[in-house]
Amino acid sequence: MDENVVRESILQLLKGGQAHMSFEEAVKEFPQEAMNTIFPNGTYSSWNLLEHIRRTQHDILDFMLNPNYKELEWPKDYWPEAKAKATQKEWDKTIEQYLQDKKELEKLLMDKKINLSTKVPFGDGQTYIREFLLVCDHNAYHIGEFAIMRQTLNTWEK
User: Fold this and answer.
1) Angle at Cα 10 formed by Cα 76 and Cα 91, nearest 5°?
2) Which pLDDT score, from 0 to 100, does residue 19 have?
3) Helices 128-153 and 3-15: angle between axes, nearest 10 degrees
4) Nearest to 86 by CA among 39, 34, 138
5) pTM of the entire structure?
6) How many distinct helices (H) and strands (E) make up the chain?
7) Closest alpha carbon to 77 in 100, 97, 56
8) pLDDT tens digits for 136-148?
9) Rounded to whole angstroms, how far apart are CA atoms 108 and 127?
10) How far is the CA of 86 from the CAs of 17, 81, 98, 142, 149, in angstroms?
């Protein structure tokens, strides 16, 4: 298969908006007063979930780029403290950092010096394509979850 086709297909998955809602659509016009509200029958807030998505995406990017990568502890390092509450500034920072890292992932994906089937030099057998698909899968899953949380919290604009 043509690697350019694969890159473009993964790029579309990273961006969202085809079969899945994009991150930007999911967070658009989210009401500040609900960012720390725990959804019904849940254990974390909308901000907790967004921060988890951001941390996980950042970790995968770091794994692919950093020769001194240190594996994070699951689940402690992938989620904020359960009782942590974000300010508007922290909410905005989570979104901004997520978008910056996504942009870096897109740039890395489109770098033709990287063969997607090559193993990440700092890993133990993971390929670049596996890592890109892992980000896409994880983000799509949790962005969908975030959209459902918005529905249960009644935070979509009417």
Assistant:
1) 40
2) 81
3) 20
4) 34
5) 0.96
6) 5, 0
7) 56
8) 999 999 999 999 9
9) 13
10) 27, 11, 15, 19, 17
Q: Which amino acid is at 65?
A: L
**Residue 90 to residues 69, 80, 85, 114, 139, Cα–Cα distance (Å):** 25, 12, 9, 34, 20
Pair of tokens at residue 112: 């033709």
- Each as own residue / partner, the long-range contacts of residues 128-131 (CB below 8 Å, 24 or more positions apart, any chain) are 128/64, 129/6, 129/10, 131/60, 131/63, 131/64
| pLDDT tens digits for range 83-129 | 899 999 999 999 999 999 999 999 999 999 999 999 999 899 999 99
Token pair belonging to 38: 């725990």
Q: Is the confidence at residue 18, as pLDDT, over 90? A: no
**What residue type is assigned to position 11 of the chain?**
L
pLDDT value at residue 158: 64
By the 8 A CB rule, do 140 and 16 touch? yes
Check whether 82 has a pLDDT greater than 90.
Answer: no
